[in-house]
Design goal:
6-stranded mixed β-sheet, elongated, 28 strands, binds magnesium ion, Molybdenum Cofactor Biosythetic Enzyme, Chain A, alpha/beta, 30% strand, Molybdopterin biosynthesis moea protein, domain 2, Molybdopterin biosynthesis moeA protein, domain 3, binds adenosine monophosphate
Length: 411
């Protein structure tokens, strides 16, 4: 049998490494995109600061800019009166402070030259017209946001490989980027296989099945930064499959679903073996055991099992990381979170099992996981009702309530 040696199931982590070995970003494939279209894209070059952040010393509080020396003896019982010589608001140009006076400042206002501390309004009292009583001695430098303290001009704000979240886009904008260099979107061919399948929108006869996997994969590929090349549905025929896979030449990744198992009408393995190579086939996991990793020509390919839950879980574990790796992302796997088992569980010891669970908060901060419904890999409803996938590792056949495990939160 091609792929792993016969009857040997490959551990998930080993198969993930194999896949990541097949997908490498092309060094030249980058494009410049405006910030409003950059969310979810992966930086191909660092973002450096065109100017310091902040650009000048400015106030962190509403209050008064002072020379700390001038009110060093201030306390609630010995208040120090000082005249207010000016008023600086956010956006005002940088002024100066004369010794023995103070300037009223708003949050974000430039600190006048000569001032070295900000006294919050709460530590003062009005003292008639044009004068303020200081009730506390300021520390020199207090509540001053110093020029460049967040980032100095010319320094790197964001490294290449960062997948841009809204806060990263804020960071680019703040230091002068209006567009960023990102990796081109990987082109992902999506193909569904099965004689029973009908396209979304058609009304299936009772013996037919709507191609929900293509709908799921289109959305999931887009979410992971890819561009979908929809290859439609192909029947269970090796000739038709071979023919249809030609449409994927020039793509960065092929994702099929269905036809990859051991049934008489499952032809994906055979055809991939002919047109390319099989790097891994059959994993020690549930759902998703029949997963195939290979190449068609020189295009990396993922053959996902057809069951909707298997397809979704294997996309999450393999498809999404592959897409992020193709974009040069520094973090391709989702972080595992600690989960507490909420009910006695039994699983197969030879398979890494991904259980669909709901979560409830607990006082120790570790969410408690209970099954969200039936766990057959055909049951999509319990997946939509799930908030996380609880992982029962290989070697464990019983996980009593209270066991500490890990899982993946579903986005
Ligand atoms: P297979 O992996 O081809 O053995 O299919 C396993 C199960 O998944 C069968 O019940 C199929 O009808 C179902 N299935 C296969 N492909 C899809 C698809 N694209 N959308 C929804 N269900 C599918
Ligand atoms: Mg099938």
């Amino acid at each position: 049998m091609p792929g792993n040696p016969a009857s040997q199931l490959m551990p998930v982590a080993v198969a993930q490494e194999r896949l990541l070995g097949l997908v490498t970003p092309r060094a030249t494939a980058e494009e410049l995109v405006p910030l409003d279209r950059a969310r979810g894209r992966v930086l191909s070059r660092p973002v450096t600061a065109r100017w310091a952040l902040p650009g000048c010393d400015n106030s962190e509080m509403d209050g008064f800019a002072v020379r700390a020396d001038d009110c060093a003896t201030a306390s609630p019982t010995t208040p120090v009166p000082l005249p207010v010589a000016g008023d600086a608001r956010a956006g005002a140009v940088i002024g100066t402070l004369a010794r023995g006076t103070v300037v009223a400042v708003a949050t974000g206002a430039p600190v006048p030259l000569g001032a070295d501390a900000i006294v919050p309004i709460e530590d003062t009292r009005q003292d008639g017209e044009g004068s303020v009583l200081f009730l506390a001695a300021p520390r020199p430098g207090q509540h001053v946001r110093h020029a460049g303290e967040d980032l100095e001009s010319g320094k790197v704000m964001l490294p290449p490989g960062r997948r841009l979240r809204p806060v990263d886009i804020a960071a680019c904008a703040a230091v002068g980027g209006s567009s960023v260099w990102v990796r081109r979107r990987p082109r992902v061919a999506v193909l569904s296989g099965g004689d029973e399948l009908v396209p979304v929108g058609a009304v299936p006869a009772p013996h037919q099945v709507t191609d929900s996997n293509a709908a799921m994969l289109s959305a999931a590929v887009a979410e992971a930064g890819g561009e979908v090349i929809a290859l439609g549905i192909v029947g269970d025929s090796p000739d038709a499959l071979r023919e249809r896979l030609h449409g994927a030449s020039g793509c960065d990744l092929i994702i099929t679903s269905g036809g990859v198992s051991v049934g008489r009408y499952d032809y994906v393995g055979q055809v991939v073996g002919e047109l390319g190579s099989i790097e891994a086939w059959r994993l020690a996991m549930r759902p998703g055991k029949p997963l195939l990793i290979g190449r068609v020509g020189d295009v990396p390919m993922l053959g996902l099992p057809g069951n909707p839950v298997s397809a979704a879980v294997t996309f999450e574990l393999f498809g999404r990381p592959a897409l992020l790796a193709l974009q040069g992302a520094s973090q391709v796997h989702r972080r595992h979170v600690a989960l507490r088992v909420g009910e006695d569980l039994e699983t197969r010891a030879d398979l890494e099992t991904y259980l669909r669970v709901r979560l409830t908060d607990a006082s120790d901060g570790i969410p408690v996981a209970t099954l969200s419904g039936g766990q057959r890999s055909s049951m999509l409803r319990s997946l939509t009702d799930a908030e996380a996938l609880l992982i029962v590792p290989v070697g464990m056949s019983r996980a009593p309530a209270g066991t500490l495990l890990t899982g993946l939160e579903l986005g």
